[in-house]
Amino acid sequence: MAGTAVRGRLTWQTATVGSVVSETARVRTLSLSVPDWAGHRAGQHVDVRLTAEDGYQAERAYSIASAPGEPLSITVERLDDGEVSPYLTDEARAGDQMEVRGPIGGYFVWDALDGGPLLLLAGGSGIVPLRSMLRHRERLGSTVPVRLLYSSRSWADVIYRSELDQPSDGVAVIHTLTRQQPPGWTGYARRVDQRMISEVAWPVDAGPGAGPGAGPLAYACGPTSFVETVASALVAFGYQTRRIRTERFGASGQ
Amino acid sequence: MEPLENGVLDGNAIGGLMLEVFGTEMTAAVSTCGGCGAISQVAELAVYLPGLGTVVRCRHCDRVLMVFVRARGVTCVDLWGLASLA
Amino acid sequence: MSPISRGFHGRRREDAPGRVPPGQYVTRDFPVLSAGPTPHTALDRWTFSIEGGHEPKRWTWQEFQALPAETVTVDIHCVTRWSKLDTAWTGVSLDVLLEGVEHDAAYVLAVCDGGYTTNLPVADLTGGQAWVAFNYDGSPLRAEHGGPARLLVPHLYFWKSAKWVRALRLRDRDEPGFWENYGYHIYGDPWREQRYAGD
């Protein structure tokens, strides 16, 4: 069994699109059916490879949106000058085929044993791997406290909006809308900065006990500029770097 | 150590490439810079993707640690900049 | 055999016969592709040198700006398959820079801030084929695109147009630079599609 799982991770496997769901105007979630899919951990990604009729191939990495145990799905944001993302968001439909490799990642992952409290920080499409972690936590019935700080351009750009509007017990979701806010908005309306971090982050001594595994664990994901700002702010707030895990995406439309 | 510029990624982005090259998950592997001695997990290294290849640098001193170039189905791997990778 | 992804084309190849080399597509963007952090060299510390001749030559920024410069409009072709047409640059021709340099070298190695290198034949730098460019599209060349100054050799793949160039080292032998060492073509003619060694 273990041998098969490793082989599966190393090689490209055929994936068939099951459904395409619109999350926002630019973002779709695609469910993928992969025979012999060995499962994944929350936070991991897959490499997706497309092949054109003339043999031309292009590949990109996309975070897995589903929780371990759920059918595999990825969430893709359309980059206007992208080569792969516009195909996945605008063209792909049920029955289409592509290839995936993975799951990939052993650093930006969260399992229940990693504990918390958890501080999740998402910039734009950086929410995807963090949503997998949230769904995993819920499926496990975990009581690890979570604060999610999620930066988006506008309310219409918030991915998984309705899901995040009804968070599980113990999960607090704090939005910041950086460019446009709906009428009557009383939440944050600017890019993440030191002050916001100090207001939102778990205090450094939050959580049970002492020792190397204690204290809050932060996961920051999104465009490089977002992650750099957030990580620096957390360090300035007192977090140790080994309690901050980061995943940088290419510059998005943010 | 300057913040990474927009568009510069980290070692998470080469998880698949390293899986292909090393045959195993490497983003959590620990690297030691052959220049300044900085110890980082691969996921924390600076990754540049200029299209011609993949250049991985130490975040502290910018030294080139790894270069991957894929040409004609063959991947050329240069790890000279590392003191160690485990 | 990889399954075909229905409806996927990749970048569309433009039909501009004679203008676009084989395998290229035309872009209106100017992608920034870098192998490392952007160097920021202050103009009062910037120099450009030609080394390896009978006597080295060196210019400060002020001296460089006093040289005759010209504005040229050229097409540029990147080995990553994008081509950009009608790009306007202002720079000093290598004919001007090499004038009076006594040497019998056939090759140069371009050396740049940040450590990048690339190699070229001297014959491809002269005869109005190459410049050290400091303006792009009417404005000072931005650091992310190679400013204060970069090499511009449009008849070869654009990796040869080294950003942040600081010196040309004249050489007897063709010594591979950064990408050439990893398997990119030693010469790099886009019209013969010389992307990789052996092409």
Defining key terms:
heterotrimer; A: 254 residues; alpha/beta; Elongation Factor Tu (Ef-tu), domain 3; Rossmann fold; 2 domains; six-stranded antiparallel beta sheet; five-stranded parallel beta sheet; 6 helices; 22% helix; globular; disordered N terminus; C: 199 residues; mainly beta; Sulfite Oxidase, Chain A, domain 2; six-stranded mixed beta sheet; five-stranded mixed beta sheet; 3 helices; 11 strands; 7% helix
Give an overview in words:
Chain A is an alpha/beta fold. In chain A, 22% of the residues lie in helices and 30% in strands. Chain A has 6 helices and 11 strands. In chain A, strand 3 (45-51) and strand 4 form a beta hairpin. Chain B is mainly beta and 86 residues long. Chain B has one domain. Chain B has a 5-stranded antiparallel beta sheet with strand order 1-4-5-6-7, with no helix packed on it. A 3-stranded antiparallel beta sheet of chain B has the order 3-2-8, with no helix packed on it. Chain B is globular, with a radius of gyration of 12 Å. The relative contact order of chain B is 0.23. Chain C has 199 residues and is mostly beta strands. Chain C has one domain: Alpha-Beta Complex (Sulfite Oxidase, Chain A, domain 2). The two termini of chain C are 25 Å apart. The chains are: A alpha/beta (254), B mainly beta (86), C mainly beta (199). The A-C interface holds A 12, 14, 49-53, 56-58, 81, 83, 87, 91-92, 96-99 and C 2-11, 29.
Average pLDDT level of chain B: 95
The count of DSSP E runs of length 2 or more, i.e. the number of strands of chain A, is: 11
Biggest sheet architecture of chain B: 5 strands, antiparallel
> Which chain pair shows the most residues in contact?
A-B, 27 and 25 residues
CATH topology of the largest domain in chain A: Rossmann fold
CATH homology group of the largest domain in chain A: Nucleotide-binding domain of ferredoxin-NADP reductase (FNR) module
N-to-C terminal Cα separation of chain A, in Å? 43 Å
Biggest sheet character of chain A: 6 strands, antiparallel
User: So what's the overall shape of chain A?
Assistant: globular
Which strands sit side by side, in order, in the main sheet of chain A? 4-3-6-1-2-5
Note the gap between the termini of chain B: 23 Å
Oligomer: heterotrimer
Strands of chain B, count: 8
CATH architecture of the largest domain in chain A, please? 3-Layer(aba) Sandwich
Number of domains of chain B: 1
Number of helices of chain A: 6
Question: How much of the sequence of chain A is in beta strands?
Answer: 25-35%
Please indicate the percent range of residues of chain B in DSSP E strands (runs of 2 or more). Answer: 35-45%
Rg over CA atoms of chain B: 12 Å
Report helical residue fraction of chain B. Answer: under 10%
